Amino acid sequence: MKIHVLTASMSLLFIAACSQPSADAEADAATTNIDYVGDSRSTVLDLKEALSSELQTAMQAAGIGAAIEVCRSLAQPITADISGRDAEKTIRRVALRYRNPANAADELSKSVMEQWIADLDDQQAAKPVVNQTMDSVIVHHPIILGANCLACHGDPDNFHPEVTKALSANYPNDNATGFEVGELRGAFRVEYTN
Ligand code: HEC
Q1: pTM for the whole structure
Q2: Nearest residue CA, atom 40 of ligand 1?
Q3: Phi-psi category of 123—alpha, beta or left, where left has phi over 0 and alpha has psi -120 to 50?
Q4: % the chain with pLDDT above 70
Q5: Does pLDDT of 14 surpass 70?
Q6: Distance CA 77, CA 70 (A)
Q7: pLDDT in tens, 94-118
Q8: Measured between alpha carbons, how far is 59 from 15 in angstroms, rounded to an integer?
Q9: What span, in angstroms and rounded, lies between the C-alpha atoms of 48 and 52?
Q10: Can you give the pLDDT at residue 34?
Q11: Across 38-52, average pLDDT
Q12: Residue of the nearest CA to atom 11 in ligand 1?
């Protein structure tokens, strides 16, 4: 019974691992382009589900340290796979403070995320943002930190020893700790090209 309860709570944690809750990513039809926001949201959900299911499996099979290994080896290929399904659309995750340098933000993503941080500071919701350029449309959806992310992105003093060990082995320059619940963690960036 104890094992059962433990497995269930670990599963809950890892359903969300490497992904994010979308509560704050609701579109505001009045201020954003509804087609791009709606379409990109479905791609975001596909990616979240794919990451979550891989992690859940890893977690159930081998524990929290192994889940970080899975994140390290599979988060990028899973993202590339979802991205590759549509030739005109790519998705990636970006962050101001990142764990994997592959997720570093460019100037556009940085400015969107900095505006969201200002909005959150003003008690405003961070909402999806659509940017149109000459040859592309880029939609950012916010990633807000939830309580179930703290195990790997919260205060390192509270990390399980397996997490500390796996992070220092796999991400020696990790910048993605010290977050608090409700804080901006990053963005899903969906880009449409013609
Ligand atoms: C099991 C530990 C673990 C948990 C729990 C976890 N993450 Fe992560 N997260 C990682 C690892 C490892 C990476 C690096 C993946 C890679 O190499 O691409 C990562 C990367 C990310 C990234 C990409 C940006 C970056 O820093 O490279 C975001 C965004 C992110 N996590 C958000 C979250 C959110 C939101 C939650 C909670 C819903 C969460 N994570 C829960 C381990 C975790």
Answers
A1: 0.84
A2: 18
A3: left
A4: 82
A5: no
A6: 11
A7: 999 999 999 999 999 999 999 999 9
A8: 9
A9: 6
A10: 52
A11: 93
A12: 71
DSSP 87: T
Residue type for 25, please? Answer: A
pLDDT in tens, 173-190: 999 999 999 999 999 999
Assess contact for 179 and 158: CB atoms under 8 A: no
Cα(135) to ligand 1 centroid in Å equals: 31
CA angle 113, 149, 89 (to 5 degrees): 50
Report the nearest atom of ligand 1 relative to the CA of 186: 29
List ligand 1's pocket residues with C-beta within 6 A. 13, 16-20, 64, 67-68, 71-72, 75-76, 93, 95, 98-100, 103, 143, 145-146, 148-149, 151-153, 176, 185-186
Nearest CA, atom 20, ligand 1 = 18
DSSP tag of 173: T
Place of tokens 């205060």: 155
Cα–Cα distance measured from residue 138 to residue 192, given in angstroms and rounded to the nearest whole number? 6
Q: Which residues are bridge partners to 131 per DSSP?
A: 138
Give the pLDDT mean for 13-23: 43
* Pairing assessment for the beta strands 184-193 and 129-132 based on DSSP bridges: unpaired
